[in-house]
C-alpha cells in the first residue's frame, strides 16, 4: 500500500523577541504600553494541546491595529498537564517572555523598538530570535 504524506509549511512572518524579566506579566505589559505607545490587554490564556493529552496554558497579552499586532506571551506555562517541559518554546527556557510583532505594513522600526526595549528597567536582557531556527516553532502558530 502506497502512503502519501502531507507536508505543511507555515510562514513565520513575524518578528520575535525573547526577554528576560523578573517582572509580573501585567507589569511588563504596562511598561511596554508606556514605552512603545501600545495598549496591550490581557486576553484569555492560550491553551496549547500536544499529543498524548498533554496541554499548557500560556499567559497572553495582545494589541491589534489594522495592519499590525503585538503579542506578549509568558514562555513558562502558568498551568500544565502531563508535560515534562512546561514551556511554550523549550529551547528558549532561560527567557521569561516572548514578544511577537506582526507588521504587514512595515510601520514599525525594529531597530528603534530594540533600543526602546533595552531601555525598559524591568527587562534585564533581550534578543531578537529568528522563528525559522526554532525546533518548536509550530508552538508559535495560533490565531
Describe the model.
The protein is an alpha+beta fold and 143 residues long. It has one domain. The protein contains two helices and seven strands; from the N terminus they run βαβββββαβ. It has helices at residues 25-36, 110-118, and strands spanning 15-20, 41-50, 54-64, 68-74, 79-81, 97-103, 125-129. Strands 1, 2, 3, 4, 5, 6 and 7 form a seven-stranded antiparallel beta sheet that branches. A hairpin with a 3-residue loop joins β2 (41-50) and β3. The termini are far apart. 23% of the residues are buried.
Largest sheet features? 7 strands, antiparallel
Low-confidence stretches: none
Give the terminus-to-terminus CA distance. Answer: 37 Å
Task: Count helical runs.
Answer: 2
- Helicity, in percent? 10-25%
Shape: globular
Radius of gyration: 16 Å
Overall structural class, as computed from helix and strand content, comes to alpha+beta
Element pattern in H and E: EHEEEEEHE
The overall strand count is: 7
What's this entry about, in short?
The protein is of the alpha+beta class.
Amino acid at each position: 500500500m502506497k502512503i502519501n504524506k502531507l507536508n505543511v509549511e507555515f510562514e513565520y512572518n513575524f518578528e520575535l523577541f525573547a526577554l528576560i524579566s523578573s517582572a509580573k506579566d501585567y507589569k511588563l505589559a504596562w511598561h511596554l504600553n508606556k514605552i512603545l505607545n501600545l495598549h496591550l490587554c490581557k486576553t484569555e490564556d492560550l491553551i496549547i494541546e500536544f499529543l498524548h493529552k498533554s496541554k499548557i496554558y500560556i499567559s497572553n497579552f495582545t494589541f491589534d491595529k489594522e495592519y499590525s499586532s503585538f503579542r506578549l506571551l509568558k514562555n513558562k506555562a502558568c498551568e500544565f498537564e502531563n508535560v515534562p517541559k512546561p514551556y511554550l518554546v523549550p529551547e528558549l527556557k532561560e527567557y521569561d517572555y516572548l514578544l511577537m510583532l506582526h507588521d504587514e505594513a512595515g510601520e514599525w522600526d525594529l531597530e528603534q523598538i530594540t533600543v526602546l526595549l533595552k531601555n525598559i528597567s524591568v527587562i534585564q536582557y533581550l534578543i531578537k530570535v529568528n522563528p525559522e531556527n526554532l525546533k518548536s516553532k509550530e508552538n508559535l502558530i495560533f490565531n
